[in-house]
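Loading example: each entry is read as two labelled lines plus one structure line.
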Amino acid sequence: MGALDFPLVPDSPALEISGLVKRYSGRAVVDGLDLVAHHGQVTAVLGPNGAGKTTTIECCEGLREPDGGSVRVLGLDPVTQARDLRPRVGVMLQDGGLPTGVRAHEMLAHVARMYADPRDLGELTERLGLGSFARTTVRRLSGGQRQRLALAAAVVGRPEVVFLDEPSAGMDPQTRHAVWDLVRELRDEGVAVVLTTHLMDEAEDLADQVVVVDHGRVIAQGSVPSLVSEAEDRTLRLETEPGLDLHAALGADFVVSEPRDGSYTVTGAVDPDAVAAVTAWLATNGALATRLTVGRRTLEDVFLDLTGRNLR
Amino acid sequence: MSTAAPTLQRVVAQTSFEARAILRNGEQLLVTIIVPVLVLVGLTKVTGIDLDTGGASRIDFLTPGILALAVMTTSFTSQAIASSFDRRNGVLRLLSTTPLGRGGLLAGKVLGVLVVELVQVVVIGLVAVLLGWRPDPAGIPLAVLAIVLGTAAFTSLALLVAGTLRAEAVLAVANLLLLVLAVAGGVVIPASQLPGPMAHVALLLPSGALGEAMRETLLHGVLPAWSVVVLVAWAAALGWGASRLFRWH
């Protein structure tokens, strides 16, 4: 075989999960999940608590053995071919996994020693702002500082695939943006980034592909624009007196809901006429709109529509 | 393509990481080195405590048992506590996803324990020599073998406990078990001097076997076959149990 048989960025997916099943004491936490992630893309896995996100990621990291279906990372089985896979995969666990008794820079240097050609520690330290607490023991770091250190450890070995389980949890906005910049840079270098998150803005800003998971299955996936504007719908949000029958103003082409008393959401082809119809109807009924906004549906709207508004 | 560092480099890195983690921790240092030295000095110098040394000097009689006790604190108590908290905090899982892997992690732990034991033996041995200890030179290599066998048994027990119980429970169990084994397990006091049936039970315990092996090698230059059989059997059984029952999550 010649060198040309190996393209720089492989065409085959970085991650291919098909029909994944994982049970804990008989209960299926992941229940027939399919997912594909590509090199040079950020894939965000969204889902409510207990949806099976972390378990899925742990199956990809070789930390859990699937009860059914298959997982292939870079074409390899994470359990049986772990030795070949580990050098090429970076992992950031949700609960950190950092030893608490050592200084931050010692921890990072230690992980770096596991790789033949690790990233430059000075550069990585600067990128993620680790310098200010490099000599502090991990036990004394804040949540956001630990997250940054864990992220540094995940990427120090120049991985081809990185799994980040809730990377921005506990971070302040400045830190989050530094982390996002690093994630984008990894993507631009051809790395496949797979992250789980609860933060809709994180998924909207970062993800090339969003996968919504609930009850251990994928219930929607696609790019953010494709998910948000599947229909050319807009949303009108309105705050006024409670208990009004806005349907009467708009007709059957619109969906009206009143999630909180006096706070209405209208979805449909919201155009200037529709807005005029609503305000005119409010005027004839003697109701004052204290707030009225028109916008596209957000990823959060889509997410809540898909997964429901009940607390779990 | 990103590649792993050579196996030797990874295991050496983990070994030094583990050893430094124990030696830098104040409480660990107290339990593994300072307490054994104090016990040694105390029991040797306070002649009010009656000891049946079987004709040997107090220091010659006591040092092998104190070394056995020191080996147990590092390979069992300290390792069980450290591993259980590392397990709870996800450290074991994170490191197992790096090229180190689970095998490298285990190798690093065992070798790290041996490094710390080397430091213990040198410090305790030097203090003992200053107090007049004169071990049988022929027994020293045999004592090293006994320490390695004892370490295999007690590290396996540490991982079995750390991999199956909650970290807080391990803290209690590891300290309690050390105390029971030290007092009634034939470590410092020979099994033959324990009251009634305890004399027989202690010989079957890993603590008693290690204590006997250390005394016989360093006092008389011979390694009792029975101690070897007991230590190897415990190491095999506990190692098998730990590999089957250890829970990573």
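The radius of gyration of chain A is 23 Å.
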